[in-house]
Amino acid sequence: MTTTTLIGVVGAGTMGRGIAQIAATAGHPVLLLDQDEAALSHAKEGLNRIFARLIEKGRMDTRTAEAILSRITTSTRIEDLSDAGMVLEAIVEKAEVKAALFQSLEKIVAPDAVLATNTSSLSVTGLAASLQHPERFIGLHFFNPAPLLPLVEVVPALQSDKALADEMCTTMRNWGKQPALAKDTPGFIVNRVARPFYGEAIRILEEGAADVATIDWAMTSLGGFKMGPFELMDLIGNDINYAVTESVWTAFHFDPRYQPSFSQKRNVEAGWYGRKSGRGWHSYGEDAVASSPIQDKDLGQAILWRILVMLVNEAADAVFWGVASAEDVDAAMKGGVNYPKGLLSWAEEMGLDRCVAKLDELQQHYGEARYRCSPLLRQRASEGRGFFGQSAGSPEST
Fold first, then answer.
1. What are residue 237's DSSP bridge partners?
2. Could you give the 3-state DSSP secondary structure of residue 291?
3. For the domain that residue 47 is a member of, what is the CATH number?
4. Is residue 104 domain-resident?
5. Which residues of the chain are modeled with pLDDT < 70?
6. Are 169 and 179 in contact (CB under 8 A)?
């Protein structure tokens, strides 16, 4: 795929606009399509503001910005995508709506044009099944804000041409992104592996072991995460975060490791979505007073260790089930959700045997399958080797 290839982007929301910006910055002509003319106008205004800020901050000169913007055109007519070499959709997360769009696109674009979905939760294989030529279909999951976060999960369908994933990984690198190849399983890499960051934090809160402010403090001040679990849920929106958790839980046949929280469900029912509603786990009104954490280092380390070991377990299990390589799992968590370290590298630093021991302790205490240790994590710990070729015993024993 060369920079002369026309890239079509369907959906002029925040994500679609971001993908259009990325492709145009990489040198491609881009056609941004939306049925709503107002959405297209809003997208163009947003892009103009973004590039004006880049110029103002000295990150881009005026000529370059104007050249990029000139490569982005808009339309409400799907027929205008007939010359596109690749079309990506960033529309509503409903399988039937996406399938209908791709069926329409298939009648318009060239036989060798790539069709890609930005879905974060739907089956790529299921969407491909709606097409006459599913071999040219693939998942390309960008993370918001797309121009800033480097990760793109490249998710081939079962029906995808064997060479397509490599081609798309190359294209994403040419676009300045960091591709991570993922198997078409619920949540792909990031939305699967990240579930304990939220779920175990809520569990600690529900047990009364610590309050919201203290848990957030432990994860940011002691763990180095950019945002605590409750801050991040409020930013994402509790309605969205809960829906993703419920979707993953259902897709995994109600595996208790992904079980949603009643506390978060009640927040959603109350309309306490987070920042966008003015209240979530934290309050955001004009008169809101931030709660003070209990800055007890021992308590904070216990919180961090419990949540972190659950994240490590999920990362190890993703490798065990062939969802992605250890390298891509670590890269995905850093590039998609800004984790301070790759989880499996972090586990090696802490000692895989210590991680296994903590998981066994939690499972024995609670008697719940959610704390079962990944077979791969246990195997690597017993063998004294890590995920990246080096030994990985606990620091005290090496």
1. none
2. coil
3. 3.40.50.720
4. yes
5. 390-398
6. yes
